[in-house]
Amino acid sequence: MSSLSTHILDTVSGRPAAGVSFRLFQEDAVLFEGVTDHDGRCPALREIPLERGTYRLEFEIGAYFRAAGHVLSDPPFLDVVPIVFGLGEGTHAHVPLLAAPYGYSTYRGS
C-alpha cells in the first residue's frame, strides 16, 4: 500500500492555507474528504491506504480566497483546483499546492 499527504500554501499572504476543503478521488469514487489545519495540512489523509493507480485531488480554493476577504471575479477564475496524479505501489507521495486567486502550481514533494 501507498500513502499520500498534501500541503497548501497561500502565495498571496505567504502563509499556509488553513481551512481549505478538499476531496480525494479514484475515478468517480470519493475516498477522502478533509479540511486543512492551521499549517495548511491534513494529517488524517496520510492514514488512508492507497493502491497503485491514478488519483485526483480537488481543492475548494475559490471558497478559501473568498473567506480570506479577496474579491474574486464572478464566476471565480479558479474555483476548484484539480490535480490528477499517479501513485506507485509501496510509495509515499506528497502533493503540495501553491495557490493564488488567478494561478497555482504543484509538484511531487517529499
Automatic annotation (TrEMBL):
SUPFAM superfamilies linked: Transthyretin (synonym: prealbumin)
CDD domains, A to Z: TLP_HIUase
Protein's UniProt keywords contain Hydrolase: yes
Catalytic reaction list: 5-hydroxyisourate + H2O = 5-hydroxy-2-oxo-4-ureido-2,5-dihydro-1H-imidazole-5-carboxylate + H(+)
InterPro entries hit by this protein: Hydroxyisourate_hydrolase, Transthyretin/HIU_hydrolase, Transthyretin/HIU_hydrolase_d, Transthyretin/HIU_hydrolase_sf
Domain Transthyretin/hydroxyisourate hydrolase: start-end pairs: 4-109
Enzymatic class: hydrolase
Function recorded in the entry: Catalyzes the hydrolysis of 5-hydroxyisourate (HIU) to 2-oxo-4-hydroxy-4-carboxy-5-ureidoimidazoline (OHCU).
Assembly behavior: Homotetramer.
NCBIfam families membership: hdxy_isourate
UniProt similarity note: Belongs to the transthyretin family. 5-hydroxyisourate hydrolase subfamily.
Protein name according to UniProt: 5-hydroxyisourate hydrolase
